[in-house]
Design brief:
single chain; elongated
């Protein structure tokens, strides 16, 4: 047990860096230890970034994907990009339907600038975001026959969730019907959203639809529900809708939205177990909300801090070697790729952003084979997490990427250079293995059995008690091979 004043151990530091960024290089772990960082001071340092205004560039989807990948590989604020990835999944918007890559890039910047800000503001901005309006048919929401797509996903995915922690519904179909009315009349012109009142559902025009009232059966508002015309009809209705959603209470009388967002963030940063509503996980959700005041302020940064100093977060630290699966999460493909590039100091090459070795496939192509394409999640539900990332095909794709990395023989930063990661004067197999696992940030995740196998590999089953890493052939076969084996290992795929 600990709290925000608990001093971080090396294992804690590696866990924090892996989950909040891309990898845990030994030099970054040492900085945390030398400063004597506590859970609180480390979280404050990580959350202290100023949100950037970067927007992926390029004339087509391929180039926009490459642009974002390059930015992630070079960023000085990895937590910012982890949060952008989270919100990109939460507010899932796919290029396969949107079509306009500029709109997707603009949304990406919106998520980046609001990634740790105020959730009320973020939700309001998403309501009128052009990419989202196209993806979930707000632009096709007409007063004659209101389109329910956005209203449904606003309830189901973005704000409330289908059911609360007790299994009770958070909304009913009539709520979706009513919410659809609020979003009639919103359109896009030259990649900007605007309100066209000629296409808006006004009560006087459709008296048969009744008053614009939602949540008469759920939300703790009573049978009268809540009207979203309290500030008047028209463009302001979609902001009023957000205020009503944030006032929604579940069957425990707790903030429905706060519980959903806190749970999702815990699932992302701590472990997939938080996807399930159990008394234990709900208690943690409520604790971080209470510690941060999120259910009244709607500020994300204090909520994130409460998560990152909690026992629940550090209880999932991978101090136990691979096998204790309750303490592990599967790295997203983009996390695996970006972490590897950053950790080994490898730069992608050319406009196509490829690894200069092996198959010389682009990072984008590697990611597609692993099951993830930026800007194009498979559905409005985003990507499936955890074990869904791992199939026979995607595991092979991860192995092919690791192979290409250790085979990179380009010039300058596009070449894999293990001599920049470990001391080549090392000769003892144990010391070499320790140096490589430290460089990859996984020294606490390799089992004794795995170490024995890897030492056997280095020594040819004990026939070579020492290695000369200054010898190019030995270095290329054994040291590069060791990096490759570890990059493909379960210890590196999980964090």
């Amino acid at each position: 047990m600990g709290d925000e004043s608990t001093v971080l151990t090396a294992a804690d530091a590696r866990h924090l860096l892996r989950r909040t960024g891309f990898g845990a290089p030994a030099k970054d772990v040492q900085k945390i230890l030398q400063r004597g960082d506590t859970r609180g001071s480390a979280a404050d340092r990580l959350l202290g970034f100023k949100p950037g205004a970067f927007q992926p560039a390029g004339k087509d989807l391929r180039l926009r994907q490459n642009s974002w990948l390059k930015y992630m590989i070079g960023t000085k604020s990895p937590l910012q990009e982890k949060l952008v990835l989270f919100w990109h999944d939460h507010f899932s918007t796919a290029a396969s339907k949107v079509g306009d890559v500029k709109q997707l890039a603009t949304q990406n910047r919106l998520l980046r600038q609001n990634c740790k800000g105020n959730f009320r503001t973020l939700l309001r901005e998403i309501n009128r975001d052009p990419a989202m309006m196209e993806f979930l048919d707000t632009v096709r929401n007409r007063k004659y026959v209101p389109n329910e797509n956005y209203g449904r996903e606003l309830c189901e995915l973005f704000a409330l969730g289908v059911k609360d922690a007790n299994g009770n519904p958070n909304y009913v179909q009539d709520d979706v019907v009513q919410l659809a009315r609020a979003f009639t009349g919103w359109r896009i012109d030259r990649d900007k959203s605007y309100f066209d009142e000629r296409n808006h559902d006004f009560e006087e025009d459709y008296p048969e639809r009744g008053p614009k009232v939602v949540f008469t059966q759920t939300g703790g508002f009573g049978a009268v529900g809540r009207s979203f015309t309290t500030a008047g009809e028209g463009a302001q209705e979609i902001d009023t809708v957000v205020d009503i959603l944030l006032a929604h209470r579940d069957s425990d009388g707790r903030s429905t939205v706060a519980r959903r967002i806190a749970r999702r963030l815990l699932e992302f940063f701590a472990h997939g177990a938080f996807a399930e509503s159990t008394p234990e996980t709900t208690a943690v959700v409520d604790a971080v909300i209470a510690a941060s005041g999120f259910d009244s302020s709607w500020e994300l940064q204090p909520l994130l801090r409460a998560i990152l100093v909690s026992d629940a977060f550090y209880a999932t630290a991978a101090a136990a070697p691979y096998g204790a699966t309750t303490a592990k999460s599967v790295k997203w493909p983009v996390d695996f790729v970006v972490t590897t590039m950053r950790t080994v100091g490898l730069k992608p090459k050319g406009r196509e952003t490829y690894v200069d070795g092996g198959s010389r496939r682009s990072l984008r192509s590697h990611l597609a084979a692993m099951g993830q394409q930026l800007f194009d999640p498979p559905s409005v539900f985003g990507w499936e997490w955890e074990r869904s990332w791992i199939t026979s095909a995607t595991t092979l794709a991860r192995a092919r990427f690791a192979r290409d990395v250790i085979m990179a023989r380009g010039t300058g930063g596009t070449s894999f250079r293990p001599e920049k990661l470990i001391d080549l004067s090392l000769t003892a197999p144990d010391a070499i293995l320790d140096a490589v696992t430290d460089a990859l940030g996984i020294s606490d995740q390799v089992t004794t059995q795995q170490r024995t196998i890897l030492i056997d590999y280095l020594t040819d089953a004990g026939t070579r008690p020492s290695l000369d890493l200054e010898d190019e052939d030995t270095r290329n076969r054994k040291l590069h091979g060791l990096f490759g084996l570890l990059l493909q290992s379960p210890a590196y795929q999980l964090h």
